[in-house]
Design goal:
Elements lengths: L7 H17 L5 H16 L5 H9 L8 H25 L2 H30 L4 H29 L3 H27 L17 E5 L8 E5 L2 E8 L2 E6 L13 E3 L2 E3 L6 E3 L5 E3 L8 E7 L2 E6 L1
Antiparallel strand pairs: 1-10, 2-3, 3-4, 4-9, 5-6, 6-7, 7-8, 9-10
Helix pairs in contact: 1-6, 4-5, 4-7, 5-6, 6-7
The structure holds FE2/S2 (inorganic) cluster.
The site of FE2/S2 (inorganic) cluster has 11 residues, from loops.
């Protein structure tokens, strides 16, 4: 067999994959990660009865989409604006006005970075293994970058513009590297992506004899799509097979006071609509109408 020489793009892809794999294998990060996770647990517990509200706000449950990616774009865009204004201030001669504007843009970037850190760490605490290790490196790079932006802002305010420009440029390099890791978590590991899978699109379809519902969740398949049936008192619920957060099998979940509970991270979904009532999930759980006809449970897409 003749070995075909690898193209430049293949070599780049292999290099990127091996960098991510190497980062994902850094098991020494697990101990500080668990410490950080425990600290976060205490922090959220300290919010008392507002705990779920605070966590939902940070996850983006209210938005139906993770909030972190939206906020993470703020420092990237704002600092790029600051650097462009720095360049214009040199070229145009309108030094004072441009420097004020670039400091303002940098300030927006710092605030965005703080928001991105709060939302990112809230999402990160529910990740595992390689994603968790890459996630903590992503977070550390952002913390250092935000620190450099803060130094830059202060230097600019004190009139040390050149020093401020250098530190914001260094920080931006870190932000770019961190953005790459963040994107690999989304596109490579599916963090923040709706993992519920395809949704059923059928009319009333018999799926199971009602006598087979013995109190345990039952998985059935309709058109190749998994559906989980739960009995809740007199009602029969039909929901998607996988949790939209990280794809936990909902056949291991349970129903608690009218809410379907995910077995992995405790997200809660409305029994009727599948809407998220408690994160970390942000997308709704597929939920189907049910009825009993001639001793058979039938499901139908809403
Ligand atoms: S898999 Fe995380 S809440 Fe369901």
């Amino acid at each position: 067999m003749v070995n075909r020489p690898r193209s430049t793009s293949e070599r780049k892809r292999t290099f990127r994959t091996s960098v991510l794999k190497t980062l994902g294998r850094q098991r020494w990060l697990d101990r500080p990660s668990y410490r950080l996770e425990h600290s976060l647990t205490f922090l959220f517990a300290a919010c008392g009865r507002h705990r779920d509200r605070v966590a939902n706000a940070l996850h983006g449950t209210w938005l139906g989409h993770p909030l972190h990616p939206a906020l993470a774009a703020v420092p990237t865009g704002a600092v790029a604006t600051a650097m462009a204004l720095d360049a214009v201030s040199v070229l145009s001669g309108h030094t004072a006005a441009m420097r004020d504007a670039s400091r303002l843009a940098l300030g927006v970037g710092i605030l965005g970075g703080i928001g991105a850190a709060a939302t990112g760490v809230t999402d990160w605490q529910h990740t595992h293994e390689e994603s968790r290790r890459i996630g903590i490196i992503h977070g550390l790079l952002n913390v250092v970058a935000t620190g450099l932006y803060a130094m830059s802002w202060w230097d600019r305010r004190r009139g040390r513009h050149f020093r401020g420009t250098v530190s914001s440029a260094l920080g931006y390099g870190l932000t770019m590297s961190s953005d790459y890791l963040g994107a690999s978590l989304v596109y490579g590991s599916g963090i923040g992506v709706d993992r519920a899978g395809p949704r059923l699109d059928v009319g009333w379809t018999p799926v199971l004899s009602v006598t087979a519902l013995n109190g345990q969740p039952q998985r059935v398949e309709v058109d190749g799509i998994g559906v989980v049936l739960h009995r809740d008192g007199d009602h029969i619920l039909a929901v998607g097979e996988y949790c939209p957060h990280l794809g936990a099998p909902m056949s291991d979940g349970w129903v608690d006071r009218g809410r379907v509970v995910c077995p992995w991270h405790g997200a809660r979904f409305d029994c009727g609509s599948g809407d998220v009532l408690r994160g970390p999930a942000t997308a709704s759980l597929p939920s189907y109408a049910t009825r009993v006809r001639d001793g058979m449970v039938e499901v139908c897409a809403r």
